[in-house]
Design brief:
By secondary structure, the protein is mainly alpha-helical. It folds into 2 domains: about 250 residues, Orthogonal Bundle (MetI-like fold), CATH 1.10.3720.10; about 260 residues, MetI-like fold, CATH 1.10.3720. It has 24 helices and 2 strands. It has a two-stranded antiparallel sheet with strand order 1-2. The longest helix has about 30 residues. The two termini are about 35 Å apart. Its main location: membrane. It is found in: Cell membrane; Membrane. Pfam families: BPD_transp_1 (PF00528). Keywords: Membrane, Transmembrane, Transmembrane helix, Transport.
């Protein structure tokens, strides 16, 4: 009877993923009108937009990965102190929306920016320069986390052998470090490229006359309600995402046969550590500047005319509905996190712990495909597929789209954790008459509490900062707080926009601190 309940649950998950992933994606492709394809591609602005997107994304990706690699090396390959603190501070940009990074640059380096007015130097922010700088701020923390994880799994015995052979540090880097990290580094590059290529938040604010494909798609759908042209651009935006997806699958299938026999031993080197301190402190300072600008502008009377202290802008922001939209964001983030954990964890349990079958392999593939669908494309898929349904226009569809948008990463967390258990546990439990659901609730969930907490944190934070997936689906009543940023920006309410970014940062920081406290408490219960 209990195994029937498990099979029923599995069937519900399959139906859920078909309705929320497969069918909306298919509807996007089917909605394309062939005559519009030639119109979009032959349009005089298409090639320049594609060139703009590829050029800005390529430069920003290269710089972002290099910066992230350098910071990951400083944290993992030197003897500097406060490594964990630096790692946390490097990831602060992840706690605010991408569009806020663009706004932060405008506040600092725009025509009337704080630094521009103080130094009397205008760097010409609007255009390629602004898009590249904003994209680096937005993407390097993700690349840093991925690279830090890779550094942890390097085997030191290879480096010992190289030292015996007399290879210099430079030779060791190019003959051991880079070749060992080649596959993973390619995945990081593609993941970073996809993030930047599909983002419209940064170029919307600082792009100036430089139009990118995501911004064009956003304006066509939101401004002109042209879903066919939006679908064509959406399919184009899917191309690098699916390339990145299949690269990850290839790396995963090829695997890494090496095992760590000895953890990395960091030798003493004062000069290296001093340089690393300088790089880390400089990065934290630069990352903190936009946040400091948000805080300053939240409490000034009128920027840049009257910089005296005032709470008038905060009062105005709440009069414009910030309080209501904050409640919407908290409700969406909380429900998405709770519902998402249940669905995602159970899906991972099915694919990681059940015997290999076609349906389990298909479930795993669909769960992973969500990683390759950019938020702006997924939002358009939902508009086309769910329009006219009971879900459309409700807060429920925002919860659903966020669950799918951020499905893959927490799914992989749970999947990898569940895969670590002995593969014979299910056979043993079946011989003893223990049901799969009992194993799930009595063994797996208690043993993977830390992973579940991290899944909750990931879903909550990303729901608070996202604007891409929900921008096409939200209306006046259910709109999350982050969507007020482009709205206020278009109305030149700079101070209110800065205040919203501060609120989102505070909420996510409080959540992160709470998660840290819960994890510490959970460790004491062991």
């Amino acid at each position: 009877m209990k195994n029937r309940t498990f099979r029923a649950g599995k069937l519900l998950v399959i139906v859920f993923l078909l309705i929320s992933v497969v069918f909306p994606l298919a509807s996007l492709v089917l909605n394309i009108q062939m005559e519009d394809v030639s119109k979009v591609i032959s349009a005089p602005q298409f090639i320049p937009m594609l060139f703009n997107s590829l050029l800005a994304t390529s430069i920003a990706t290269a710089l972002s990965v290099v910066i992230a690699f350098g910071l990951a090396w400083c944290v993992n390959r030197t003897n500097i102190r406060y490594k964990q603190v630096f790692s946390i501070l490097f990831t602060i940009p992840m706690l605010i929306p991408s569009i806020s990074h663009g706004m932060g640059l405008v506040l600092l380096l725009g025509d009337n920016g704080l630094i521009t007015n103080f130094l009397h130097i205008n760097i010409g922010l609007y255009g390629y320069l602004g898009i590249i700088i904003g994209s680096i701020l937005y993407s390097f923390p993700v690349a840093f986390l991925m690279l830090t994880d890779i550094f942890k799994y390097e085997d030191y015995t290879t480096y010992e052998a190289a030292q015996v052979l007399g290879l210099s540090k430079k030779q060791q880097f190019f003959t051991i470090t880079l070749p060992n990290m080649k596959g993973a580094l390619i995945s990081v590059i593609f993941a970073t490229f996809t993030m930047i290529f599909t983002d419209y938040g940064v170029p919307l604010v600082v792009g100036g006359k430089i139009m990118t494909l995501p911004v064009y798609m956003y304006r066509e759908v939101i401004g002109l309600l042209d879903f066919s042209k939006g679908a064509i651009i959406g399919v184009i935006l899917l191309i690098p995402a699916f390339i990145a997806f299949f690269m990850d699958l290839k790396n995963e299938s090829s695997g890494n046969s090496s095992t760590i026999t000895r953890s990395f031993q960091i030798q003493k080197n004062k000069k290296r550590d001093i340089i690393s301190y300088f790089i880390c402190i400089l990065t934290v300072f630069l990352v903190s500047l936009p946040i400091l600008a948000f805080v300053i502008l939240s409490f000034v009377k009128q920027y840049p005319i009257d910089m005296s202290f005032s709470l008038a802008n905060i009062k105005e922001a709440f009069q414009l509905g910030v309080g209501m939209y904050l409640k919407n964001s908290l409700a969406i983030a909380l429900v998405t996190s709770l519902v998402g954990i249940c669905v995602i964890y159970f899906t991972a349990y099915i694919t990681a712990r059940a015997k290999r079958s076609f349906t389990n392999a298909a479930l795993h593939l669909i769960a992973m495909v969500s990683l390759a669908i950019p938020g702006v494309v997924l939002g358009l898929c939902y508009v086309i597929f769910f329009e006219g349904s009971l879900l459309y226009g409700t807060i429920a569809i925002l919860i659903l789209v966020n669950t799918i948008h951020f499905f893959a990463s927490p799914y992989l967390m749970a999947y990898n954790s569940l895969k670590k258990f002995n593969e014979n546990l299910e056979d043993i439990s079946a011989c003893m008459g223990i049901s799969k659901l009992k194993m799930l609730f009595d063994v797996y969930i208690p043993c993977t509490r830390a992973t579940i907490i991290e899944m909750f944190s990931y879903l909550f934070v990303n729901c608070m900062v996202t604007i891409s997936a929900v921008s096409f689906l939200a209306n006046f009543r259910n709109m999350p707080l982050a969507l007020l940023i482009p709205q206020f920006d278009s109305q030149s309410l700079i101070e209110a926009t800065a205040f919203i970014s501060v609120i989102i940062l505070l909420v996510n920081s409080i959540l992160k601190l709470a998660v840290y406290a819960v994890k510490r408490y959970a460790q004491t219960l062991r």
